[in-house]
Design a protein that fits this description.
Strand order of the largest sheet: 1-2-3-4-8-7-6-5
Radius of gyration: 19 Å
Mean pLDDT: 84
CATH class of the largest domain: Alpha Beta
Low-confidence stretches: 18-28
Shape: elongated
Distance between the termini: 64 Å
CATH topology of the largest domain: Protein Transport Mog1p, Chain A
Number of strands: 8
Structural class: alpha+beta
Helix content: 25-40%
Largest sheet: 8 strands, antiparallel
CATH architecture of the largest domain: 3-Layer(aba) Sandwich
Length: 169
């Protein structure tokens, strides 16, 4: 009798775990991440303004292709390339008091190179990363009084710095 009860509990736990994973797999988002329909909804959900670069290269599409919010407060906006349709620019943030942007709001990547630098007058970290498909990205991250900001660009370092430099706190 105890074995039947234990088997029923294990089966129920497995079933609940599977039911929890189905929506994430169907939507293609990691645990703790929800998609917003647009930038305005993302700002309402996060409780802060998302930084939007004032400078967009002609190669980047507007409006954003995707907006994501993590349960820990991190948020990201993804922009597509006009030419190939793939994601070419991402702007991510984390609220004050957090140490880093949740990896779940960005595609997986491996950091290849990291340098300390400045963006305007703010200290920044400039990196080169490789995504899961092998594409190289340039990224810069800095802290403002209100949030951590990361800009990742699938282009040149000069282009990245121009885009990131146009982000106003």
């Amino acid at each position: 009798m105890l074995a039947v009860w234990l088997l029923a509990v294990v089966a129920a736990a497995f079933g609940l775990r599977l039911a929890d994973a189905v929506p994430r797999v169907a939507l293609g988002v990691p645990r703790g991440v929800v998609r917003a329909t647009d930038l305005a909804q993302l700002e309402r959900q996060s409780g802060r303004r998302m930084p939007v670069p004032a400078y967009f290269p002609d190669t980047i599409q507007w409006p954003p292709a995707e907006a994501r919010m993590h349960s820990g407060g991190s948020a990201a906006v993804w922009y597509r390339s006009r030419t190939g349709g793939g994601i070419a620019l991402m702007v991510a943030t984390a609220p004050p008091g957090t140490q880093e942007i949740a990896a779940a709001v960005l595609p997986a990547s491996v950091e290849l190179q990291r340098e300390a630098g400045t963006l305007g007058t703010r200290p920044a970290v400039v990196s080169r990363v490789r995504d899961a498909e092998g594409a190289l990205w340039q990224q810069v991250q800095w802290q403002t009084p209100g949030q951590i900001i990361l800009v990742r660009y699938r282009g040149t370092l000069d282009g990245l710095l121009k885009i990131a430099g146009s982000v106003h706190d």
